[in-house]
Amino acid sequence: AIFFVVKQDNSLWGWGFSRSGQLRMVRPFDEKTRGYVTPRKLMDRAVSATAINITFALDPDGTLWVWGAGYDERGDGIRKMTLKPHKVLKNVAQFSSSMTHTLALKQDGTLWAWGFNPCGALGTGDTKSHYKPVKIDLTPLGGRKIVRVAPRMTESFLVTDDGSVWNWGKPNNMKPYCMDEPRWVPVKLDTIDNVADIAVGYLHEVYLKKDGSVWVTGYTEGAASTSGGWKGPTKMMDGAAGIAAGEHHSLV
Question: How does pLDDT run across 93-130, given as a tens digit for each residue?
Fold first, then answer.
């Protein structure tokens, strides 16, 4: 696990495991440290950061930076590990990254994507992977404005200002190898509305509605088949202010 905090002076600090350089150093496993890195300063200024094998950090000026492993979702075109931050994109309002690809919403409302794309998760209309950001055609949204982006392996979600949720890529994460026909462009989901925020796990989605209620969709624990076990939107609670999701758990 990797943890980040932004201090009141806007400095970014991180701790946890850094075997791929996620904390700007490489710490292999050994009996003394167990591979764990204690809190260390990573950048002088940041507003948010996230990491799996790669770390992304957003500067207050809207510049998105990356370091760590040389995987497809980096966005700077470098295919090797780096410990020094590299610039990916300017004028970014928000971003989110999965183990396969990354989405970034720019301050002008445009959506950009990059990374591994076998099932159409980038929204480019094909399966070509991109190692640098490409602009996504938002014509299907009909002029709606994006308020939140949320990718996961081979699939992407977004929420628009009218409370609708859109999805593209592989629509069934229980089936491997893109067995279901991918959605090549953003498609509006008719199962949920009035949404303010979304958080996605490996096999579930958490929605915060504009009225403060929290709803969950996804596969129930122990689903044995690739076709069953899915539950539609289920109300969990009211009075929520924020949501988050890990691969297999949720937070409100």
Answer: 999 999 899 999 999 999 999 999 989 999 999 999 99
Q: What's the distance, Cα to Cα, between the start and end of the chain in Å?
A: 20
Q: How is the beta sheet containing 230-237 ordered, strand by strand?
A: 195-200, 204-209, 214-219, 230-237
Give the closest residue to 213 by CA, choosing from 249, 163, 166.
Answer: 163
Burial 124-155 (b: 16+ CB within 10 A, else e): beeeebbbebeebebeebeebebbbbbbbbbb
C-alpha span between 68 and 46 (Å, rounded): 17
C-alpha span between 59 and 167 (Å, rounded): 28
The residues near 68 (Cβ < 8 Å, ≥ 6 apart) are 20, 21, 22, 51, 53, 54, 55, 74, 81, 82
